[in-house]
Amino acid sequence: MKKIDLKKRTLQAFHQLKPELQKKAIFLAISGGRDSVALAHILISLKEKLPQVYWLHVNYGMRQPQCDYEETYLRQWAKQLEVPLFVKKISKKNSKENFQNWARTQRYLFFSEQIEKKTEALLWTAHHQDDQVETLLQKLISVGEFQGMQTVQVLKKMHGVNFKNPLTIFRPWLEIPRVNISDHIQRKRLQFFEDHSNQKLDYQRNRIRHKILPLLKEENPNFNLSLCDSLKKIQQQKENISERAGKWLKRNLKKDDNLLTAELKKTDIAIQRQIFHQWINSKLSGYRNQGKVVEKILNTLNKKNIIEQGFKLKAGWGLFLNNEKCVLKYLPNETRCEFLFYIKQK
Q1: Do residues 261 and 326 make contact, with C-beta atoms less than 8 angstroms apart?
Q2: 3-class secondary structure for the chain?
Q3: pLDDT by 10s per residue, the chain, length 346
């Protein structure tokens, strides 16, 4: 294990923020687990060099009496360190809803509610390199390809349906391996709490952590770093392509929301892909099946002779393509056949 000075790296990450962000109060999401306890300890050691620190904790009440004990410990620790702590107790009422999804939604809703009371604040989380790798592998398994994947961002704005304002999340340890955090916990003899559900193989993320990743690291001890570096390079290329596609779309999109097929066919397929993603996103943000539909569109577009074809998207939107043009239209209550007929008449 390569030794890492967590205090130094945290301060370096902080100083890489824009000056206006360095002035914002720090709201730390603290679960009482290994990672958040370690980051809490580091922030306290840096209190003379950082803005005011607050702690946010959610008690889900799912592991009683353990959850209440963890909350009590954090309250005592916060009082001892003179750190303001905000706690929310909640319980899951709908037994059919996935607990992990529900907990995440409730957690970030609580964070947003507290941070909205402080207009100048950042949410800090203790996500680290292993978390990022697990997330990337989850996406790769579900999507089946690197297209659409991207590395977790150190600084990110999160939008929520019930958020008054987007959350700005800062992850200073995103390039720090879990083993270095464990080392800090041991050396400083910090008390933390282990959520035993993290050991259950019922969840895909746990299977990746306990079964798949150890095997990959046996083959390549630097697997985490290799994967993250590869995704960074892919993301840089994607950003370049995205920028070029955006400029092309701005130049070529007609007032009646159509593109000339001949002009589209002149561009590289990677640019075409981003053109359609950006175009559809401008109308349907968050469309989950977008990737599959775009690939079908590209397959049709790049044939020598295009057979007139319509692609139903969602919420009444559809895309029609022929040898002359490509049209994106809102057609509520139209069937596929009616949609094709409607576009042909225009």
Answers
A1: yes
A2: CCCCCHHHHHHHHHHCCCHHHHCCEEEEECCCCHHHHHHHHHHHHCCCCCCCEEEEEEECCCCCCHHHHHHHHHHHHHHHHCCCEEEEECCCCCCCCCHHHHHHHHHHHHHHHHHHCCCCEEEECCCCHHHHHHHHHHHHHHHCCCCCCCCCCCEEEECCCCCCCCEEEECCCCCCCHHHHHHHHHHHCCCCCCCHHHHCCCCHHHHHHHHHHHHHHHHCCCHHHHHHHHHHHHHHHHHHHHHHHHHHHHHHCCCCCEEEHHHHHCCCHHHHHHHHHHHHHCCCCCCCCHHHHHHHHHHHHCCCCCCCEEEECCCCEEEEECCCEEEEEECCCCCHHHHHHHHHCC
A3: 788 999 999 999 999 999 999 999 999 999 999 999 999 999 999 999 999 999 999 998 777 788 899 999 999 999 999 999 999 998 866 656 677 778 888 899 999 999 988 777 999 999 999 998 998 888 888 766 555 566 678 898 887 767 777 889 999 999 999 999 999 999 999 999 987 777 778 788 899 999 999 999 999 999 998 988 888 888 888 889 999 999 999 999 987 788 999 999 999 999 999 999 999 988 877 676 778 889 999 999 998 888 788 888 887 888 889 899 999 888 766 555 555 555 554 4
Taking the model in full, what pTM does it have? 0.75
| Contact indicator for 327, 309 with CB cutoff of 8 Å | no
In the chain, the domains with their CATH numbers are: 6-219 (3.40.50.620), 243-344 (3.30.465.60)
CB 306 within 8 A of CB 340: no
